[in-house]
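Narrative of accomplishments. A recurring question from our advisory board has been how the design workflow behaves on a single, concrete structure rather than in aggregate. To address it, we present the structure tokens for one chain from the evaluation set, followed by the sequence designed for it. No filtering or post-editing was applied between the two.
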């Protein structure tokens, strides 16, 4: 079955008890057993819940994975993958990544004896040089948050030493546009809070793999650590994911128009969007992805005050953290999502106070362009940084 069909049917058979067409929300923490130690596969909802199981089957299918474990957030999913490691292990990780992942790695897990080397993963030689005998995990985010750079997943898989796991955070691309497992990754991680859920109404995460041993260890930690989603959130995420394909097509159509519009403005110093011919990895994007996605970031000319004024001048783009919902959002990553990265590191990576990140929603494109144009014009400096 094709992607859109699986999104609507995988894991979502009619309920056996009632025939309910839509998977019910099993709001129960426990299950009545037939006799001591005899139950129907469900004993306690941290371990297993039918609504969550349906979501896991749906998401595994979308990522073309054999297994999926759902979590209470993207960070809980990331933590569960890192639970595969032990003290003394080393991780090579891309240096352009979500600030919360950076925080988990550098401020939490480093205290447990896991070492991290942050490297520019667009540089194959630098990535190769960062790998040590103790490297047990390579962690890549592609496209990256917030600079929309790409990492070559197949090239990373080829670099990977035996016994080392390649994990890819596929949140920005979604399984509709990119299939890391098919490119050689061992594990895919998602913040389902974003495009998969798609409506900014539930926080969640997922880890998918086709490796039975990895899946078993991740599931063991899912239960042992307990960062699971409740049945209501699992259900909302599953409902959202049904329309992932339709939404992604619209997100991308609008994002391309927004990227072209911004690229034509004199007051925009740089536009980061993999679909632009001038993007440094446009060719890789065409090869590795089935589309360029709905995220666009851009650097405004002028000082930070211009960017901050612009950020509160839009009417449709809400100034908010997060991304991937049907509504358009805008953020200044240096002061919001990436605030936990030290200033010098941020600036070195190009995450300056003038960098604006857009999550382009699926509203009417004309309205979105009008909104951006009005906010840019309203905050243009008198010196003439205006529209062409
Ligand atoms: C690329 C990426 N990965 C992981 C996360 C973390 O997900 P969550 O906020 O669901 O914990 C985020 C959140 O913004 C993200 O953008």
């Amino acid at each position: 079955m094709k992607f859109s069909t699986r999104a609507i049917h995988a894991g979502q058979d009619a309920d056996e008890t009632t025939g309910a067409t839509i998977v019910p929300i099993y709001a129960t923490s426990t299950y009545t057993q037939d006799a001591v130690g005899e139950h129907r596969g469900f004993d306690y909802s941290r371990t297993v819940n039918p609504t969550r199981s349906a979501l896991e089957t749906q998401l595994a299918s979308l990522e073309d994975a054999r297994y999926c474990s759902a979590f209470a957030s993207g960070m809980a999913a990331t933590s569960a993958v890192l639970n595969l490691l032990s003290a003394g292990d080393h991780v090579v990780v891309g240096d352009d990544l979500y600030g919360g992942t950076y925080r988990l790695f550098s401020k939490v897990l480093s205290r447990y004896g896991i070492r991290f080397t942050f490297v520019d993963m667009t540089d194959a030689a630098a990535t190769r040089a960062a790998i040590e005998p103790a490297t047990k995990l390579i962690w890549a985010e592609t496209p990256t948050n917030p600079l929309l750079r790409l990492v070559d997943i197949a090239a990373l898989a080829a670099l990977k030493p035996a016994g080392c796991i390649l994990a890819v955070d596929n949140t920005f691309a979604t399984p509709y546009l990119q299939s890391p497992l098919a490119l050689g990754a061992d594990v895919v991680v998602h913040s389902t809070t974003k495009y998969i859920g798609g409506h900014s109404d539930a926080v969640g995460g997922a880890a998918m793999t086709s490796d039975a041993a990895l899946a078993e260890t991740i599931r063991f930690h899912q239960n042992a650590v307990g960062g699971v989603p409740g049945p209501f959130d699992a259900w909302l995420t599953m409902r959202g994911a049904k329309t992932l394909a339709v939404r992604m097509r619209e997100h991308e159509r609008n994002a391309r128009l927004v990227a072209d519009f911004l690229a034509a403005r004199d007051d925009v110093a740089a536009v980061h969007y993999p679909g632009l011919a001038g993007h440094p990895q446009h060719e890789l994007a065409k090869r590795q992805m089935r589309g360029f996605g709905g995220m666009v970031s851009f650097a405004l000319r002028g000082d930070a005050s211009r960017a901050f004024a612009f950020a509160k001048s839009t009417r449709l783009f809400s100034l908010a953290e997060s991304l991937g919902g049907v509504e358009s959002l805008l953020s200044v990553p240096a002061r919001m999502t990436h605030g936990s990265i030290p200033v010098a590191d941020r600036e070195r990576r190009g995450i300056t106070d003038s960098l604006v990140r857009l999550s382009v929603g699926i509203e009417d494109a004309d309205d979105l362009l009008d909104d951006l144009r009005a906010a840019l014009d309203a905050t243009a400096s008198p010196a003439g940084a205006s529209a062409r």
